[in-house]
Design brief:
Strand content: 15-25%
Strand order of the largest sheet: 3-2-1-4-5-7-6
Helix content: 25-40%
Radius of gyration: 17 Å
Distance between the termini: 53 Å
Length: about 220
């Protein structure tokens, strides 16, 4: 059986219900390969086994494509090594993405990856210490604000609300969705309501994953 990263990526995407053409899978693996090369010199990820990178970085990011579908622009807060923003942009040819992180070496990698992946026209990486002041930080408010385990749900919502365009939505990627009463309380405390929530297991390790979508009350 073919155990190449691209094959496993295609296999995993199919298991998640994600339509992934092979040329897109190859571009995604090229991005991941660059991440692993950089990681040998700069600490970007604790996950270094190629097939684990496929599942826990690439497939984990692609799993939330339904939650960003139809959006023109996404702001990825605490993007780290460009996850989930860069895989989402590679898989969605019209999506505009802004990647934000406070760590300079991570932003340097993201800028390199954006250029290498041919995304420079619609994806940018910004070195910003997020303080909830988008105008001062020169960040445009976005239709979708997303994060992959950047902060716990409550603190993330409190921060994300400052960067959200009117009518936009916040997408929180989590390993475990809080119980409904707790989730509702966290949303209300930050001025949001829960629009949807979804859970699944990654296709190979069966690790639990979830995503919650919020909209502002006002």
């Amino acid at each position: 059986m073919d155990k190449s990263p691209v094959f496993r990526l295609l296999e995993g995407a199919s298991a998640l219900g994600v339509d992934l053409p092979q040329p897109v899978a190859e571009r995604l693996w090229d991005f991941a390969s660059e991440l692993l090369k950089w990681n040998a010199r700069v600490n970007l990820t604790a996950i270094t086994e190629p097939l684990e990178v496929v599942e826990k970085h690439l497939l984990d990011s692609l799993a939330v494509l339904p939650e960003v579908e139809g959006a023109a622009g996404v702001l990825d807060l605490g993007a780290g090594a460009g996850l989930p923003g860069i895989p989402l942009a590679i898989a969605s040819p019209k999506l505009q993405v802004t990647l934000v992180d406070a760590v300079a070496k991570k932003v340097a990698f993201m800028k390199n990856a954006v250029a290498r992946s041919g995304l420079a026209g619609r994806v940018k990486a910004e070195h910003v210490h997020l303080g909830g002041k988008p105008e001062a930080e020169r960040l445009a408010r976005a239709e979708v604000v997303i994060s992959r385990a950047f902060r716990d749900v409550g603190p993330f919502l409190q921060l994300a609300r400052h960067y959200l365009a009117p009518g936009g939505r916040v997408v929180a990627m989590v390993s475990k969705v809080p119980p409904e009463p707790e989730l509702g309380a966290l949303a209300q405390a930050a001025g949001f309501r829960v629009v949807s929530q979804r859970t699944w297991a990654l296709p190979f390790s069966k690790a639990a994953r979830g995503v919650v979508v919020f909209r502002r009350l006002d």
